[in-house]
Amino acid sequence: MMNDDFFVGWGTLALINAGLAQGKNRTGLNWFLLSLFLGPLATVILLFTEKREDSEV
Questions:
Q1: Is this prediction's pTM over 0.70?
Q2: H helical segments located in 1-57
């Protein structure tokens, strides 16, 4: 039972990181996948990254 809760929490964190990444003009899918492996470390990295400027040509 506890093991299922761990995976649900880890997946929820990955979704939160994807949304955070999109808010900083980064690819949400890439950060979601990265978060599945790095977990809370990916969150810390995202918190300290700068927001990308919109690159409209």
A1: yes
A2: 2-23, 28-38, 40-48
